[in-house]
Structures are given as structure tokens and as C-alpha cells.
Description:
By secondary structure, this protein is an all-alpha fold. It has a domain at about 5-40. The chain contains two helices and no strands. It has helices at about 10-30, 40-60. It is flat.
Amino acid sequence: MGYQRPSQRELAAARKVVRQDEMDRAIAEGRLTVRTMTVKERAESDARWAAASKARARGRKTARYYR
């Protein structure tokens, strides 16, 4: 069987592995700090998620593409 081009899913998985390795290295070297959200940050994040969820439920007001 000949060469088969990798799928987009496979390419994305490979990029994710590289990105994760880079993040792990940055954390180990102290260039990146990982912390938990504060209560205020969590509340703000939850509010943004709720607003986005409502917007998705309403749907688009106008068509994005015309045929």
C-alpha cells in the first residue's frame, strides 16, 4: 500500500503532544507558573460561560453565508 496522508485528527494529535511537551518543559524550568483560579476569577469565568451558552442557544440572528 502506498503513502497515505495523515488525517487532520492525527496531525492535531501530534501538534498537541509537541505543545504539551513544551508546556511541561516551561513549567519545569520555571518559565511558566500554573495556579488555581481565585474565587473571583472562577465567578467571572462561570459568568462568561453562561453568557456564551445563552448566545449559542439563541442562535444566529442573520445568515453567515449566502448561496
